[in-house]
Design the sequence.
């Protein structure tokens, strides 16, 4: 990425962050309701048997709790982020490396502790009992990802940490490897909510 493009992205993130600071909790709830209504009508959501969902921050983005709960109630297998620190310097990977791990139930979801950003996160000592697509090859039919913005071509601008980009790259690589071993597998990643909206 060029220095100028990186600077433009950083400036846009800051501008949107400042705008979001003025969005009230009621407005966030209203927008969340609209997004969820659209999501739950989507055929790709209805057909998904395995679903990855980001866990939302307390403010400034669409609240995803009801997505997780509804999916679990519908019998879908739900996966949520687990992020660990990358202590290796200049190895080409993000500073924080994200994976997605399975939830067992609604009560499991409700019991997740929160991290320093007040975002729910599975406990490290629970990971051995959870599925992980990057380890066991589980294919995620759909992934709901966070975004700061989308452009007219539906390209996503994230928070700048590279967590989701790196995760999706690794997922795709793993899926390609699985397909080489078993031609019955197909790539099942589907567009996230923001990529389904009409351009402004």
Sequence:
């Amino acid at each position: 990425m060029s220095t100028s493009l990186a600077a433009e992205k950083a400036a846009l993130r800051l501008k949107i962050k400042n705008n979001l600071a003025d969005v009230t909790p009621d407005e966030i709830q209203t927008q969340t309701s609209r997004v969820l209504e659209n999501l739950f009508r989507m055929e790709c959501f209805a057909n998904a048997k395995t679903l990855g969902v980001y866990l939302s921050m307390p403010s400034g983005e669409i609240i995803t709790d009801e997505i997780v709960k509804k999916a679990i109630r519908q019998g879908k297998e739900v996966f949520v982020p687990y992020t660990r620190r990358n202590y290796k310097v200049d190895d080409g990977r993000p500073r924080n490396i994200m994976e997605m791990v399975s939830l067992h139930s609604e009560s499991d979801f409700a019991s997740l502790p929160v991290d320093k950003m007040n975002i729910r996160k599975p406990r490290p000592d629970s990971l051995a009992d959870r599925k992980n697509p990057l380890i066991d090859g589980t294919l995620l039919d759909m992934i709901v990802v966070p975004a700061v913005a989308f452009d007219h071509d539906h390209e996503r601008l994230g928070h700048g940490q590279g967590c989701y980009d790196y995760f999706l790259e690794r997922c795709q690589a793993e899926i390609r490897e699985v397909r080489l071993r078993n031609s019955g597998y197909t790539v099942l990643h589907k567009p996230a909510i923001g990529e389904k909206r009409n351009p402004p």
